[in-house]
User: Fold this.
Amino acid sequence: MPVLTFAFCTYNRADRLEKLVAAMRAQACPIPFEILAINNNSTDATAAILSRLEQLPGPRLRWVNESVQGIVAARNRGIAEALDSDILVFIDDDETPLPGLLQAAADAILNEGAACAGGRVEMDFTSTARPRWLEDDLLGFLAAVDHGPERFWIEDAGTPVWTANVAYDMRLFRDDPALRFDPRYNREGKDVGGGEDAMMLRALLERKARIRYRPEMAVLHAVESWRLTRSYFIRLHYRAGIRHGRFSLPCYPNVRFGVPPFMLAQFLGHCGRTLKLALSGKPGLVRQAMNAAHALGSLQGYRNRSGA
Assistant:
């Protein structure tokens, strides 16, 4: 019978672990499943709490320590630990799985022939109030996902699924040892940025993997107060721009002072539009400032690419 590994990576969120593991154990699943926790050098009571929770009844909890700091190392450790399983489902340690998640994940992989499946990520503002400036088009940068109530096959990155809520057929990773999360897009601790899940989605699309959107695969994402600042969104895009400039852009033949002139023009244009919105008081200021920060990061990343 197939076996499923239900995994999460964790760093210094000991206060969430009891509720998280209880919700994971409460999931109904058509096949046997285990829970896997990857402790990424937490300095709080994470180890002690996981040791206690593994003794409780229900689906087995096992946990491992990953000494290399960062989400990429932790996720790749999860893959390595689950290679003997048939399905790997990732969620994050700041989420709560809603009923039906594992049933939909197993159905997508085992019955619909998906190599990867993901679903909705709902925002939970119960412990931290949503700021008035946080417009709906910014929620995706907090990992929100909602592509509607219908199932469909994902053909491009315009309708993404993230590791906040994703299932993989483990043959993907057994058959292709090079398919792993990209360390160039790492994020350590409470650093911002990353993008390792976006790069994994791109790698799967390039390999023509069958990717399924299943809205029943749903999690509730607890939004921490430190993410609900304008500066967080701007830093997030600046760091994403650095990675974009270093690793994604081609080498352009025409450069001045280490950067293509058109990139500088784009940055200045975004700065002008940001200033205009700031003076007018019209909505969209934060999103436009994020565009300017991304353009600036891309300039910095492109100049530094020789050291990549």
